[in-house]
Design goal:
The protein contains 14 helices and four strands. It is mainly alpha-helical.
Length: 438
């Protein structure tokens, strides 16, 4: 019997053939990638196909992970569960996917949804939105009696109510309620201001009618006394008109009666230093200028709002992860695990929004050609919007493995808080965009 010497497994493996040296670190190559630095042996300078592949791979890492990630993302919670289980190499990192999808989704939204000439694109011509500055209040300011003011006020408010119902029924526009409410507030304010002016005139005329000629004879002396009476001085020593001087007789909401002006009448906050007050007035001036631009060109305001949403979402993802941590405090999961769940849930929401934007644009394009097909596309978009909260509920149930009752309660509580925070963050970001230089 011949004895056989069995070597170690390492000795049994034949050495890998060398393919030259790495161009980056001069290490011996045993394949298409350097084992020392990871550089590929393909030279993008010499091969056009490799150059194109490198461009896409650097952005998407198109080695199959993007397709596996999107496929598993369609199943509620599958991508998050697999990633947390350690199967990370098959998926795109959630933070990278979230950044790419947030930019892509709101770019699609800004490109497919248009607001032009105070109406949504595709709306019927001539259906303009009533504004605040273009209201004809001449009937109120020219009224000679309180009854005329009230009659004109009721007429304008009735027209606004009819227009509001018509737009809400035929072509709902985001933010229209705020504009309509501002218009109604202006009408009521102008009417109350005119009524107060007429009552003051009546009160001043009543003593003259009662005294008759003596009051008329005393008028020149009163005028002389008022002319020779010194003006009141303010705290800074500057002359200010007397309290019984000439009152403003015109409308309230005009450029001549505005209280704030960044240069002529700036805001002064006593506890702020001068440079901070200057900054506040500068931002308010930008906001006023941009507000006028956004009203004249509503698409600019809509684009500013869409541009503010990615920043709001980016800030809210860690907040949502913190809410998940508090809701599942006794699960003993790390905060970064909740961050993965928050990122993948937002990635699905962004994908669903992108699909909704594209379907909405396609439905509007086919509305005049194939109405039935446009209606079907609209139903698909509505179905996607309805599926979004159901998806999040199923994902929460699959990841955290609690009963349906507790999962539903926590889902509703988290959703309520998150919607409030999202609206607040989007408003802050929009105000910040409004205060940027023109």
């Amino acid at each position: 019997m011949t004895d056989q010497i069995v070597g170690s497994p390492a000795d049994a493996v034949p050495p890998l053939p060398e393919h030259g040296l790495c161009a980056n670190c001069d290490a011996p190559l045993h394949g298409h990638y350097c084992h020392a630095c990871g550089q590929s042996t393909h030279d993008p300078v010499r091969h056009v196909a490799h150059a194109i592949e490198e461009v896409f791979e650097s952005f998407w890492h198109l080695d199959g992970r993007v397709f596996r990630t999107l496929r598993d993302l369609m199943s509620p919670g599958k991508a998050a569960v697999e990633y947390l289980a350690g199967h990370r190499v098959r998926y795109i990192p959630p933070l990278r996917l979230f950044v790419i999808l947030s930019v892509l989704t709101f770019f699609i939204g800004a490109a497919t949804i248009h607001v032009e000439n105070n109406r949504v694109a595709g709306q019927t011509e001539g259906a303009s939105v009533p504004g605040v500055t273009d209201i004809d209040i001449s009937g109120i300011s020219d009224a000679a009696t309180v009854e005329e003011v009230e009659r004109e006020r009721d007429r304008l408010l009735a027209e606004f109510a009819q227009a509001r119902e018509a737009f809400a029924r035929e072509a709902p526009i985001p933010g229209l309620d705020a504009t309509m409410i501002a218009g109604e507030v202006r009408i009521r304010g102008e009417a109350d201001n005119r009524i107060e002016q007429l009552r003051r005139k009546a009160d001043k005329a009543a003593p003259a009618d009662a005294t008759g000629a003596p009051a008329a004879a005393a008028a020149p002396a009163t005028a002389v006394a008022e002319a020779t009476e010194p003006e009141d001085t303010g705290a800074g020593g500057e002359a200010t008109p007397a309290d019984d001087g000439v009152e403003w007789e015109g409308p309230l909401f005009t450029s001549d009666s505005e209280a704030f002006d960044p240069k002529l009448n700036p805001v002064r906050i006593a506890w702020l230093p001068q440079f901070a007050n200057d900054w506040v007035n500068r931002k308010l001036g930008y906001a006023m200028a941009n507000g006028k631009r956004f009203w004249e060109r509503p698409e600019l305001g809509f684009q500013a709002f869409m541009a503010s949403l990615p920043s709001a979402l980016f800030l809210l993802v860690p907040v949502f992860a913190l809410l998940l941590k508090l809701a599942y405090l006794f699960k003993r999961r790390l905060y970064l695990e909740h961050m993965v769940v928050a990122l993948y849930s937002h990635c699905f929401l962004l994908l669903a929004l992108a699909a909704t934007f594209l379907l909405s644009a396609l439905g509007n394009a086919l509305a005049g050609v194939a109405g039935w097909l446009s209606s079907g596309i609209g139903l698909v978009a509505i179905a996607i919007l309805c599926w979004m909260p159901i998806y999040l509920l199923l994902m929460q149930k699959r990841v955290y493995r609690q009963g349906w009752l507790m999962t539903t309660i926590k889902f509703l509580a988290l959703g309520y808080v998150y919607c409030f925070l999202l609206a607040f963050a989007a408003s802050i970001m929009f105000i910040a965009a409004l205060a940027k230089p023109v």
